Amino acid sequence: MKKLILVFFFGIWAFLIPSVAQTGGDSFLKALNNIKEDVLKAQLGFLASDWMEGRATATRGDYMASDYIASQLRLFGVAPAGDLQADKSTAGLFDSSENTYFQNFTLIKTIPGEPPVMKIIVSEGKDHIRTTNPQPDTDFFVYGQRQSVEMEAPVVFVGYGIRNEKLRIDDFSNLDLRGKLVLRIAGSPGFLEDKLSVAEMLYLSRDAERIARQAGAAGMITFDPSAAVPVPPRRNPFPDIAYAEASQSPGRRSASYSLPSTKSPDSFISILVSARTADELFSGTGFNVEEFVSNSVKKHVKPITLPADRKIYIKTNVKTENVRVRNVVGIIKGKDTSQIIVLGAHYDHMGMSDGYVWNDADDNGSGTVGIMTIAKAIMETGIKPEKTIIIALWAAEENGLLGSRYFVSKLPRPVNNIRLNLNFDMISRYVSENEPNKAFMIYNDTFPAFKTMTERNLKEYGIDLDIEYQPSANPPGGSDHRSFVDAGIPIMRFKPGHREEYHTPYDEVSTVDWDIMKKIVRIGFANIWELANSEW
Questions:
Q1: Cβ atoms 440, 494 nearer than 8 A
Q2: DSSP 241-305
Q3: Which residue, 460, 440, 456, is CA-closest to 516?
Q4: Which of 117, 120, 256, 319 is 20 to 30 A from 198, alpha carbon to alpha carbon?
Q5: Partners of 392 in the β-ladder
Q6: Cα(495)–Cα(498) distance, integer angstroms
Q7: pLDDT digit string (tens) for 256-272?
Q8: Rounded Cα distance, 536 and 165, in Å
Q9: Angle made by CA atoms 121, 125, 129, in degrees to the nearest 5
């Protein structure tokens, strides 16, 4: 990836050429000042309402949301840049194909088949093997499976599964994970609370799985020492959340999605187990889980090595089907159509579960409305930008960045004409009530002038944001900008807080901090307008 970036930036200037004045003058300023809270409220109030049913991938609410977004882009005057569609009224007479706002593509939806089977096998001497049979749902739960699997594999314990260079902690050090099942404690240890941000701690499980996959592990087993069952009850108590006036959904846990591939499906297996099932794996070792967790409140505790005499047999069965989804894509053609900036945000989310709606105003209704509002502002200037700007609202981000990955996979190679991706994801919550103006800006460290430009625009246009700049050779994060980073395309992302309503039904419009959202949309517009109209 570093090689790609070096090739990409070879021969282009490392610094922006500061403009004497923003292109457009009064027209630009008028468009900037029209980015108001009422404009954001009008759009987000509908996009994050019960009418959209949580915008889960390939559902009615998902299609309704994409129709709404497309209608807004048309209203703002943004041209369609999706798939071609023939005009049926002239079929057979002459070619009258025209672009739509939709980039359609197929996903493989995978759902469970027959109940899975698990056995814990422990050798107790030369001639005796003890086998226990955990039960599905009550003792273990398999999720995200993309193909039927039958295997028997040894188990390796990694504690909380932390690898952090800054803290000099590596629970995976000197472990051979190839072909093995990795056992991990869910969550994060107490001693990290004052060392890592909330977002960094949330990413621990994702990072642990990534490390296990890269090391060739067969799968990951996760358990909560306080959980009597591996997953919460089906009907979670959210007493303050209104029921949807719609049919109940089985919830996100029952289905996973993937892009079709010519390669064999991923066989990596992810399993949640109950505390008593995990205890069976520790039997005879003298290991005390409660003591391990308690000691981890104050300091890092090295995981024990499980004996090689214990294995897990697992058999799963899945069913698959093809489903159609769509990105929403518009274009603002510039004077130079060979230089392109992509503004993107994902519009999908988690849908409904047992009648509760995950309306997800912050994640990511806020980013979607932010990008649409920048599109509106660009069109309001009445000026054709120097570079071409693509407006893209992604499908299926929550299922693995699938919409943006599909888009990037279809770009002509090499991708040098894509100069930048601006990603908005969760832009409407304060870091804290004590830091209402705090935000983070993530960008490629090969473009230090991005910081200079942002500082100048904040000051010049009176945008009261306290930005912590986070340049990186490999910009981190589990959002759609990663699809561009992986292709060697520069990115810019603004991100304020990561609050406790994340991925719950409490992420409602009523929790939005409109002031921080407005400021981030304004600085996003100011930066993009300058980048689209200057050499860099």
A1: yes
A2: SPBPSS-----GGG-EEE---SSPPP--EEEEE-HHHHHHHHTTTT--HHHHHHHTTTS--PPPP
A3: 440
A4: 256
A5: 329, 344
A6: 9
A7: 899 998 887 778 999 99
A8: 34
A9: 30
**Are 346 and 422 a contacting pair, CB within 8 Å?**
no
The second-level CATH assignment, the architecture, of 114-316 is: 3-Layer(bba) Sandwich (3.50)
Q: What is the rounded CA–CA span in Å between residue 502 and residue 359?
A: 11
Strand, coil or helix: 326: strand
**Burial of 183: CB neighbours in 10 Å, binned 0-12, 13-18, 19+:** buried
Q: What are residue 55's phi and psi, to 5 degrees?
A: 55, 35
Q: Which amino acid is at 526?
A: A
Amino acid type, 168: R
Which three-class secondary structure string do you get for 178-245? CCCEEEEECCCCHHHCCCCCHHHHHCHHHHHHHHHHHCCCCEEEEECCCCCCCCCCCCCCCCCCCECC
224 Cβ contact partners less than 8 Å away, ≥ 6 residues apart: 185, 186, 187, 275
Whole-angstrom Cα distance, residue 464 to residue 518? Answer: 11
Q: What pairing do the DSSP bridges indicate for beta strands 438-444 and 466-472? A: parallel
Query: 286: Cβ–Cβ under 8 A, 6 or more apart, which residues?
Result: none
pLDDT in tens, 323-379: 999 999 999 999 999 999 999 999 999 998 877 899 999 999 999 999 999 999 999
- To 10 degrees, the CA torsion angle through 523, 403, 326, 110? -140
Q: Are 335 and 533 in contact (CB under 8 A)?
A: no
187: its two tokens: 């969550």
* Cβ atoms 389, 528 nearer than 8 A: yes
Beta strands 418-424 and 336-346 are parallel
Read off the pTM. 0.79
For the chain, the domains span 2-10+39-88+95-105+325-431+475-531, 114-316
Cα(361)–Cα(412) distance, rounded to whole angstroms?
34
Could you tell me which CATH class the domain 2-10+39-88+95-105+325-431+475-531 is placed in?
alpha beta
